[in-house]
TrEMBL record:
Protein name: Carboxymuconolactone decarboxylase family protein
InterPro entries according to UniProt: AhpD-like (IPR029032), AhpD_core (IPR004675), CMD-like (IPR003779)
Species: Rhodococcus chondri
Domain Carboxymuconolactone decarboxylase-like: 19-96
Pfam family membership, one: CMD
PANTHER family xrefs: 4-CARBOXYMUCONOLACTONE DECARBOXYLASE FAMILY PROTEIN (AFU_ORTHOLOGUE AFUA_6G11590), CARBOXYMUCONOLACTONE DECARBOXYLASE-LIKE DOMAIN-CONTAINING PROTEIN
Database matches in Gene3D superfamilies: AhpD-like
Domain of life (superkingdom): Bacteria
Amino acid sequence: MSTVNLSKEHPAAYKELTALNAQAEAAVQEAGLHPLLVELVKIRISQINGCAFCLRMHTRDAVAKGETTDRLAVVAAWWESQYFTAQERAALALAEQVTRLSVPASLTWDDGSLTAKQTSAVGWLTIVMNAWNRVAITSHYPVAP
C-alpha cells in the first residue's frame, strides 16, 4: 500500500482537525490579524514543510485577497526583504519557530509587534497549518496543473 488518504480512513479525526482549524481562524480574527498576514503565515509554513497542495491553495487565497506577486515571490526569504511590516515579520518568525521547534527557542520574533492574543492566535494557526500540511503530504493529495 503506497498511499492512504487519511481523511477517508479516519473521517472523525479529519472532522476534529477541521473544527480545530475553525477555532484557530476565529482566534486570528478575534486577535485582529490582517487576512493577508494569515495567508503569508500559511504559505511560509507550507514552504518549510514542502506541501505543494497547501502552497497552491494558500497562494491562490492570498492573491484573491489582494496579495502582490512581489511579496509572494520573496516570502521564502522574508527576513532579507523590506516588503513586510514589523508585525508580519514577527508573525513569520514565530510561525517558523513553532514549525521548526528550535531548542533552545530563539525568540527573535518577540519584538513587541504582536500582542499576547495575536501571538497565541499565530501559534494556534501554525499548529493547525502544520497538521494540514502533514495530512496533505501523507495522503499524497494531487497537485496538477
